[in-house]
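tokens incoming
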């Protein structure tokens, strides 16, 4: 059975209905989604530091650490002589740097909470998880939020080839997957390194790193069953040698939102052969050409279509829908909106059987929106709850990103933590501004079942009623 409802548009395709969203959507849910296929710029992000700015800060703090470590060593030597205790040198710049990153996280969540284009926001978050990097790798930590702003948002509704290129050359991805240090075995830099190593055998020799090439093929484009071989991985890795990030010596590359640098002396010379196609030795452009070919490969079309359909429709999406999306993508030359439109238009996406279990991020965002909790303090609490529920912001367990199926988030311990989160968020709602039953109707629409509605009516307090709503089985699903 197919039921095209405002509640399905808000909750399955969006981020969860706020107090007025179902009314705003009105009687044309598909039209409401289509209007979001050309989202405007987010004014709230204007003026934030760019990746090059963060990179400059990172280098400055690293230098301060070295100097502080040297001073501490000298102080310890002096202490051994005069029996005094050295004081630790404070680093206010490092604390300020961490505050910037926390402000980025809070602002990112607030933008989603207040968005009038939640479908567009969900698309951005989908691609951010598709091209996952993790802040638990220290050198990549400053660039997770900027990569979403700079590489993903501007291209999430354009051509996938542009999105792919923007992400793979972003400092966040280059540092997270170690390509910034990758050196071709026959490059000029490798030759010099070999001569230096002969003179000093203890010196580490830099070489080819396959991480970014492997994840580009396995995760970002073709998929694990996309038909590539280990030889293709090596050839792509060679093609993108020299793709690196600016260093303190590259003053021209340390401004704004573009910290990419191509180091020709680290690039492996020669033509490259990937998936049966040959790309001539053309410096940085060689890697660009290969990425463009990958973006238009039929396996990429199917991989992306499957993941999108799984995210929006069901853990096991209808094969016919996946096929329609993939065909539309290829026919358009890789335009992402061509793939989004069949998703919106297909009755399978609106079936009453189509539903998705909320990830912790889905749960917290939809709970905050339902409760009208948009203050920075509310967001900070929700970030802590996200970590407790197993989905800390920008910290997936692997480059594959966070899981997107019910089995990964619906275990007994996970559900218990979700109940605790519901209670914590309910305590933050002003009692004078909330009626649990009205909140349930606004958030869930027809999905508010009679049992839950009765429980909300009988709640002994406003907070108890809100906690019951947020912990109810109906609230755990995007349906």
């Amino acid at each position: 059975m197919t039921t095209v409802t405002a509640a399905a548009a808000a909750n399955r395709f969006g981020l969860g209905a706020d107090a007025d969203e179902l009314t705003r959507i009105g009687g044309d849910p598909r039209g409401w989604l289509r209007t979001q296929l050309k989202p405007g710029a987010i004014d709230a992000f204007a003026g934030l530091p760019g990746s090059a700015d963060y990179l400059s800060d990172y280098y400055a703090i690293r230098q301060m650490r070295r100097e502080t470590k040297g001073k501490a060593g000298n102080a310890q030597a002096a202490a051994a002589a005069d029996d005094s205790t050295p004081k630790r040198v404070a680093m206010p710049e490092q604390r300020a740097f961490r505050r910037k990153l926390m402000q980025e996280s809070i602002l990112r969540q607030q933008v989603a909470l207040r968005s009038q284009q939640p479908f567009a926001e969900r698309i951005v978050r989908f691609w951010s998880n598709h091209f996952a990097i993790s802040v638990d790798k220290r050198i990549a930590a400053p660039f997770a939020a900027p990569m979403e702003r700079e590489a993903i948002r501007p291209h999430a509704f354009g051509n996938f080839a542009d999105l792919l290129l923007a992400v793979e050359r972003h400092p966040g991805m280059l540092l997270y997957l170690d390509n910034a240090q990758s050196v071709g075995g026959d490059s000029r830099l490798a030759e010099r390194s070999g001569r230096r190593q002969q003179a000093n055998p203890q010196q580490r020799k830099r070489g080819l790193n396959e991480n970014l090439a492997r994840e580009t093929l396995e995760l970002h484009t073709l998929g694990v069953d996309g038909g590539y071989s280990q030889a293709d991985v090596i050839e792509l890795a060679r093609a993108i040698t020299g793709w690196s990030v600016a260093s303190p010596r590259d003053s021209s590359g340390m401004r704004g939102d573009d910290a990419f640098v191509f180091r020709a002396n680290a690039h492996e010379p020669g033509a490259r052969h990937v998936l049966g196609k040959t790309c001539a030795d053309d410096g940085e452009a060689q890697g660009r050409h290969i990425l463009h070919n990958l973006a238009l490969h039929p396996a990429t079309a199917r991989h992306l279509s499957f993941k999108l359909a799984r995210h929006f429709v069901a853990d096991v999406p209808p094969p016919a829908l996946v096929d329609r999306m993939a065909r539309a993508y290829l026919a358009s030359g890789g335009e992402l909106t061509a793939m989004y439109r069949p998703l919106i238009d297909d009755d399978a996406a609106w079936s009453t059987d189509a539903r998705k279990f909320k990830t912790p991020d889905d749960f917290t965002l939809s709970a905050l929106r339902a409760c009208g909790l948009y203050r920075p303090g509310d967001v900070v609490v929700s970030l802590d709850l996200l970590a407790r529920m197993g989905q800390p912001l920008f910290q997936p367990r692997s480059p594959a990103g966070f899981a997107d199926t019910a089995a990964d988030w619906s275990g007994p311990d996970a559900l218990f933590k979700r109940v605790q989160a519901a209670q914590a968020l309910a305590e933050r709602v002003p009692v004078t501004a909330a009626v649990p039953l009205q909140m349930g109707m606004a958030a869930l629409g027809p999905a508010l079942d009679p049992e839950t509605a009765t429980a909300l009516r009988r709640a002994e307090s406003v907070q108890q009623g809100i906690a019951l709503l947020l912990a109810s089985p109906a609230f755990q699903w995007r349906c």
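note: Strands lie at 243-245, 260-262, 272-274, 277-279, 356-357, 477-478.
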